[in-house]
């Protein structure tokens, strides 16, 4: 009997799966047979370097060469131009503010908002994310710098020596972060972001936001604090702030209060009139310009002891390799930066790709971010990633390709070459307020706690333990401990998995748990009448 007649004959009535042999199942299911191949044939097919394969590999490593020749000026140019200008305007205040978080001079924030963008345009696969400074990574860099024994961290050196020492450590940390991401790409570890579950990311970013908030309080009140290292450092800093409230500068407090009211009120207006406005009003830029002008006119630094940004050199930085003397101490923080930074990039990139119907290559994204950080570190940048606020603006206004990022980079180039020095009188308290107000979305994650309480208590434990570890042990060590705890919860779930045998309720086609329903039926000698749920 041939296979066709067998299939036709068997199709007339259902077959009992227990009476079928593997050979008959292969015939019924039309099993696909694979041709046996030798090891040499497999190596040739997988690693053989041909002209078309080399070309495909080159174009996959440099995606710009794939989409740029097909770029449509008619369909994409206007949207990319408008979104690029809008995002470029956001880069200025965020770059200055995040440089303060990273404990480096403000101009390095502008460098970090320029060089990495150019690199990502060439090597990135996402069309909508905005690469540049990111508050979470900036505070991680600032925490590492604060823990290092550097000139000026413990006093006794000039401010310029301190700034240069911190910038050198930030650049070294960034280069190591980029090299780790490149190594992960070579190992095909694009799925490394799966190590960061959603509860872990929520608890970690909330802890990072608390770190950021406490670090901004001294700037908003002009209170001098000590740098603390090790466990509970953030709580010691909070103690310094509370004990120094009687020495706060009234002028700085007024600047902070007025800036807070202006920025929060502006964002409320944006939300209220979002349907009438073609694009959100960039209140951060408005605040920066107004504060700079008023600081010039009123001489806030001289008359009211308000701290200002200070010297902002114009021009581009020359590439230089920082000393690698601290590489052993920076290895763990660099790995934490690499994983966290890529995790945010991959998550946002996947979200936009699913929304707009295209795909991103996670390993290529690792390579792109690794090059952004390793090459950016040579130009005195600190670690960069994807900003959610800028990415949302870039996508919502109409950006369709990374050409919009190129427009943003050109705008930053103009600022670096021509008008950066105009912001030397900008009060630091204004930048601190901009940072705090933009953390509202991260603090909103606290709403996840009651949801997790009602849906999954183990995920809630991961969220809380991650928050406490990141607060008590700092962001780098806390991340490692939180990831280990998250893996332990997975082991716990596998060891305590739940299963149920379902039987049919008489007179219905509904199946219920045998342990919970006494009237379910089924033949005790026939498992075909039961369903096993795992």
Report on the structure:
- The protein is mainly alpha-helical and 534 residues long.
- The protein contains 24 helices and five strands.
- It has helices spanning 3-11, 22-28, 39-47, 51-61, 64-67, 73-101, 106-112, 115-123, 135-147, 159-186, 198-221, 233-243, 250-272, 283-298, 300-304, 327-356, 362-378, 388-397, 403-419, 428-437, 440-443, 448-455, 457-472, 474-495, and strands at residues 131-132, 385-386, 500-504, 511-513, 531-533.
- The strands form two sheets. Strands 4-3-5 form a three-stranded antiparallel sheet, with no helix packed on it. It has a two-stranded antiparallel sheet with strand order 1-2.
- A hairpin with a 6-residue loop joins strand 3 (500-504) and strand 4 (511-513).
- Helix 8 runs antiparallel to helix 17 and helix 16 (327-356) packs across helix 24.
- The longest helix is centred in the middle third of the chain and has 30 residues, at 327-356.
- It starts with a helix and ends with a strand.
- Residues 1-12 and 523-527 have low confidence and may be disordered.
């Amino acid at each position: 009997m041939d296979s066709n007649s067998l299939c036709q004959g068997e199709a007339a009535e259902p077959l009992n799966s227990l009476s079928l042999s593997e050979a008959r199942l292969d015939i019924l299911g039309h099993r696909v047979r694979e041709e046996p191949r030798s090891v040499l044939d497999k190596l040739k097919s997988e690693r053989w370097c041909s002209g078309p394969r080399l070309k495909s590999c080159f174009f996959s490593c440099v995606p710009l060469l794939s989409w740029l020749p097909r770029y449509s000026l008619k369909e994409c140019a206007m949207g990319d131009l408008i979104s690029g200008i809008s995002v470029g305007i956001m880069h200025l205040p965020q770059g200055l503010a995040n440089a303060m978080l990273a404990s480096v001079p403000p101009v390095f924030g502008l460098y970090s908002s320029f060089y990495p963008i150019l690199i990502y345009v060439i090597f990135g696969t996402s069309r909508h994310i905005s690469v540049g400074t990111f508050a979470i990574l900036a505070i991680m860099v600032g925490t590492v710098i604060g823990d290092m024994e550097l000139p000026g961290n413990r006093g006794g050196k000039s401010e310029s020596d301190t700034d240069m020492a911190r910038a050198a450590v930030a650049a070294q940390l960034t280069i190591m972060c980029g090299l780790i991401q490149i190594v992960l790409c070579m190992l095909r570890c694009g799925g490394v972001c799966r190590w960061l579950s959603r509860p872990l990311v929520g608890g970690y970013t909330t802890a990072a936001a608390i770190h950021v908030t406490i670090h901004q309080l001294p700037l908003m009140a002009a209170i001098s604090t000590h740098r603390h290292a090790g466990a509970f450092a953030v709580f010691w800093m909070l103690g310094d702030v509370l004990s120094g409230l009687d020495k706060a500068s009234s002028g700085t407090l007024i600047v902070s209060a007025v800036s807070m009211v202006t920025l929060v009120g502006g964002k409320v207006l944006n939300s209220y009139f979002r349907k009438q406005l073609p694009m959100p009003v960039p209140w951060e830029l408005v605040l920066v310009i107004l504060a700079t002008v008023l600081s010039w006119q009123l001489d806030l630094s001289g008359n009211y002891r308000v701290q200002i940004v200070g010297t902002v050199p114009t021009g581009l930085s020359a590439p230089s390799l920082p000393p690698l003397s601290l590489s052993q101490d920076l290895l763990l923080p660099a790995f934490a930066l690499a994983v966290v930074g890529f995790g945010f990039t991959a998550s946002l990139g996947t979200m936009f790709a699913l929304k707009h119907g295209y795909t991103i290559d996670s390993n290529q994204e690792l390579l792109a971010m690794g090059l952004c950080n390793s090459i950016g570190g040579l130009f005195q940048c600190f670690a960069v990633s994807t900003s959610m606020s800028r990415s949302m603006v870039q996508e919502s206004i109409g950006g369709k390709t990374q050409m919009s990022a190129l427009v943003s980079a050109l705008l930053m180039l103009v600022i670096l070459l021509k008008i950066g020095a105009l912001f030397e009188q900008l009060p630091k308290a204004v930048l601190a307020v901009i940072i705090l107000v933009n953390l509202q979305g991260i603090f909103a994650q606290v709403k996840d706690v009651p949801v997790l309480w009602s849906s999954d208590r183990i995920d809630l434990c991961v969220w809380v333990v991650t928050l406490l570890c990141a607060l008590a042990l700092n962001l780098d060590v806390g991340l490692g401990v939180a990831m280990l705890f998250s893996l332990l919860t997975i082991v716990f779930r596998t060891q305590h998995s739940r299963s149920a045998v379902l039987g049919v309720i008489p007179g219905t086609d509904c199946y219920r748990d045998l342990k919970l329903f006494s009237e379910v039926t089924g033949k005790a000698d026939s498992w075909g009448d039961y369903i096993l749920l795992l």
